[in-house]
User: Fold this.
Amino acid sequence: MRLKQLIEALHALIAGKNVVGIDVCGELSAQVDAWRNAGQIRLNEQANLAIFESALMHA
Assistant:
């Protein structure tokens, strides 16, 4: 699923509801070599932030 599709689904899910919390997960394991996976880690953080900000704006 693309990030845009996920955010649209999230909007539909939380529309008109009283959301009291959100858990954004899916991070790489702490045991993964961060240096080699810096690009993936950065992309993951950008996606997590986009999900979180979108939920805040539509809550």
About this structure: The longest helix spans residues 38-58.
